[in-house]
Amino acid sequence: MTGPAVPAVSVADLPADAALLDVRESDEWAAGHAPNAQHLPMSELTGRIAELPDAEPLYVVCRSGGRSARVVAFLAGQGYPAVNVEGGMQLWAAQGRDVVAEGGSAPQII
């Protein structure tokens, strides 16, 4: 059973200046993330919701699109304009978009 449909965009259709929120866990973020993304793990979202970027819409990304869809549904319920990035960071990297890692290691999507 699936929940209500959430607003979504494919990586290919993501605006160049999109405000990107990465909701993966810290180890995933450190291994590889979009250069201009902001990190806020899904597990910490409710306690840190005040830290969300003041952007409309806010594009939410995770590894493959599942967690980010749940975050978008939650944010939509709070009246926050959010859009799920379908395919997540796996598709982002597969399309050759920039990925950076913490600590100078080779970036990877884990």
UniProtKB/TrEMBL annotation:
Domain Rhodanese: 14-101
UniProt cross-references to Pfam families, sorted A to Z: Rhodanese
Tree of life domain: Bacteria
InterPro entries in the cross-refs: GlpE_sulfurtransferase, Rhodanese-like_dom, Rhodanese-like_dom_sf
PROSITE patterns noted in UniProt: RHODANESE_3
PANTHER family for this protein: FAD-DEPENDENT OXIDOREDUCTASE, SULFURTRANSFERASE YTWF-RELATED
Descriptive protein name: Rhodanese-like domain-containing protein
